[in-house]
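Journal club prep, shared notes

We agreed each person brings one worked example of a sequence with its structure written out as tokens. Mine is TolC family protein. I'm keeping it raw so we can talk through how to read the token line rather than staring at a rendered picture. Sequence first:
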Amino acid sequence: MDNLMQMNTYSINRHIIKNNKMKFKIKKILAYMPLLFIGFVLPQITRAQQVLTLERCRQMALERNNNIKAAMEDINAARAQKAQQDVGGRPSVDGSITGFYFGKPLNTIIPEYGLSSGLGITQPIYTGGKVRLGKEIAANGVEIQQEQKVLVTTEVLFTTERAYWLVVSAMERIKLALQTKKQLAALYTDLNNHFTAGTTYKNDVLQAQVQQNANELDISRAEDNLTMAKLYLAQVTGLTDSTGFTVADFLDAPINTVIDNSPMQKAPTNRSEIKILQTSVSTEELQQKMLAADLRPGVSLALNGITAFGKSGINPTNKDNFMASYYSMLNINIPVFDWGRKRKKIQEQQFKVSSQRYQLKEREEQVTLEVQQAFLQLGQSVKRIGLSDLSLSQAEENLKLSNDRFKAGTIVGKDVLEALTIWQQAKSNLLEAKVQYKIDAAAYQKATGSIER
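Then the structure, token by token:
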């Protein structure tokens, strides 16, 4: 009996100790919970609440976009090529070392073995202007790549602004759908009460339910559109596939619809495509001069020093095993006759120059049309905002009157539903008009070459 009591006491004590250890672990975990919250959960919440402005999105796109980075590397490559041309016309120094061994019977005439080293300096004196032309062509190459980067930057900034306002549009459409949901819920309650009281038909209640179902689908569709718009903006700005952000702008704020037409006159000089084509024409003309330089003589001076080590007798003057000497040469290369090949190349280049000039003229005309079209499109967006705003005011008044008349019993629920649908469409049209204005404004800046400024 005593043994049994001792065993029970031991078991109880062991259980108490185990429970105490468990409580200690729980307290220890609870003590670390605030640190875990601060270290892990809080940063997640902070990132989820990140608010992006349009300017911040533009800045991130400029810093992270791969196309802009690639364009910068092309500029570096063009600068490296220019650095090569900048040292043209300077003397070049070449060294060489040659070892030789001759067998019979040559070793009876000349030294059997030896080592010869040489150092040569060559200085072009006259190249027909090729050195100067090469430098100018390389400088044009840098200029073209710089304008190409501006062109890429313009496209990236326009895409960024478009993606940003698509996110704003998606958020506003969710707000509109939720607002409509509240109005439909209130209307359904009124219709159901009237139906219960026997003052309206069940058909009105069913129509309200159908509208509610359609509204739920609109909310789901708007949420999906917001997710896709955020993913698009994240990809453009280098946020990878993150959607844990929101945007700072909203469409309820007043929009400045004053259009500045001063950039229109500067568009042909601001557009990077025009600058690239202008520089290309200049480069082709330099290439033509480069080909013409091939018809002129070329003059160069070379100074060479040589040494030789080897078997006794390598020096013919004293039969020693060492020899050192030098020599210089003046080279004059005069083109005489090549069946007209070089002149045909010049003629071919002339045609290329003419082609580039026609392309430049065509692009200038296209730019003028693009700018005019973008200006007119922006003006249409301004008019659309004004008309949509007026239609929304009228739709709001119509909805208010319909609700008042429904409460007074002069119209049925179907009429209120129609008024609500008209209001929703008018509100949607105004949102779309404002978003389109923002996108058209960016397109106008892109057309005039001022979006990157």
